[in-house]
Amino acid sequence: MITFSSLGLSNPILSNLQAEGYENPTPVQQQSIPIVLQGRDLLSCAQTGTGKTAAFGLPLLEMLSKGIIKNKGSIQSLILCPTRELAIQIHESLTAYGRNLNIKTCVIFGGVPQQKQERELSRGCDVLIATPGRLLDLIQQKIVRIDKIGYLVLDEADRMLDMGFLRDIKRILQEIPAQRQTLFFSATMPDDIRKLADSMLKNPAQVNVSPTSSTAEKINQTVFHVAKDNKKALLVELLNKHKDNSCLIFTRTKHGANRLVKDLMKSEITSEAIHGNKSQSARQKALSNFKSGKISVLIATDIAARGIDIDQLSLVINYELPNVPETYVHRIGRTGRAGSSGLAVSFCDHDEKIFLRDIEKLIKISIPAQTFGTMTAPVLKSPVVLAQSKTQNQPKSRNQHRNWRNKPSLQKAS
């Protein structure tokens, strides 16, 4: 059996891993850590929840602790990620992995006043974790310099492109040395992501721990065919059945998340929402309450699909199916993490059947359909048959499909 000690990590880091309850490395960690320690660039396609933070964080800390990365006193390593939540999560993980190593880790992100982050940076920083927008702001203000880094990580690269950060990434690349080690992590690898990777990496090793856009094997997936007007009643019934479990619910819009909190309150179910209109302090408070167990139900838009790392999250509910099939993979990846089992439940009304077909095509399985009490409509056709049929309300051509899925009421919102 492969152990962390067999991967070339030193005793202080091994002790920290043991204190954090880590036992054996995941496949992405087994393959990535030795490659990074060799100084090679890395291109990794691995689904969310497979342990990617440790895959790049542990060898980074190892090299810093041994002085392999030079320029002490300057920012030596930069980790870019798409969301505040993910940046905070990475910072917390690296702080735990690097305890007592005399390595300073800082995190910066937008949505909050920058003064506290400035003070933290002024005390010195070896590893900087940042979202692209805030990093560029501080670079332009000459508060941050990244011209001496030797180690660059892009985490959740596909999500950063989805959020429109490509131009920011290219501007950041102009500020850092051409001679560096670059690690590129993405849950999916479409053509635009691979093109970006090719422009950044030099003779990279490749790590693929699972097929592109696959879902974790230990996630039990099911879909309920239910009329839109019956979704709230079904949700209440489902939450009451699983009231001893933590549950993360995804909606497509910010307004929908807020409305659902109020609807659940009427049924005496306490929940909180996180989305892009919430302040950073409100989002962190809601996430903290969820992690600590003060609330067992958290409602989120897709801004949280890759930024929440919660041990033993047993249930994810897609109250509304995403209109981008890859997003489904990221949403349900919040459960079944690091080998644990989990349940992913999706609600599908008539207008969402086209999204369900796209999701099943992407993940290459037919999600089992279920009934729950009297709230769900009968399943008349299997997904395989539905994929071959056309209804009056569904598009008949690829262009019609594209226009239909992007109509304003169905557009992705964070």
Describe what this molecule looks like in 3D.
With 414 residues, the chain is of the alpha/beta class. It has two domains: 5-208, Rossmann fold (3-Layer(aba) Sandwich); 219-410, Rossmann fold, CATH 3.40.50. Helix content is 38%, strand content 15%. It contains 16 helices and 14 strands. The chain has a seven-stranded parallel sheet with strand order 3-4-2-5-6-1-7, with helices on both faces. α2 (27-37) packs parallel to α3, α3 packs across α4 and α13 (325-332) crosses α14 (353-363). The longest helix has 14 residues, at 52-65. It is globular and about 60 Å long.
Features:
globular, seven-stranded parallel β-sheet, alpha/beta, disordered C terminus, Rossmann fold, 414 residues
Give the number of DSSP strands.
14
Lateral strand order in the biggest sheet: 3-4-2-5-6-1-7
What is the helix/strand order? HHEHEHEHEHEHHEHEEHEHEHEEHEHEHH
Tell me the β content: 5-15%
Shape: globular
Q: Kindly report the CATH topology of the largest domain.
A: Rossmann fold
The radius of gyration computed from the alpha-carbon positions, rounded to a whole number of angstroms, is 22 Å
Residue share in helix: 25-40%
